[in-house]
Specification:
The protein is mainly α. It is built from 6 helices and no strands.
Amino acid sequence: MNAQSIELFKFDRRNMGTVYYVPLLVWCVSALLIWQASTEIDSYMFSFVVIQGIFIPFSCWHVLFQYSDLFEDGAFETLSPYYQKYVWLDLVSYTLLNLKALSLLLIMI
């Protein structure tokens, strides 16, 4: 990651606190499970189950956490004009980040 991409996620890290690192932890667990299962006969099937059952559900963690205030706390009227400006940036940046992580998991298979 370069300096601009680190700055891009700086607000999200401050906003979410330690919860920001949950997807990274899930990626590490997924990578460890795939690495451990690489010696088994059905390792491809197990690897895809790990990706579908563990990694993919947590890949939307950041976006769901960030936009949950709009719907749960009743702040839709207040926050929606602000979020409309940046929703495309969040979706694109986290999509690219998760695609990089997914490609690393697929390389491990």
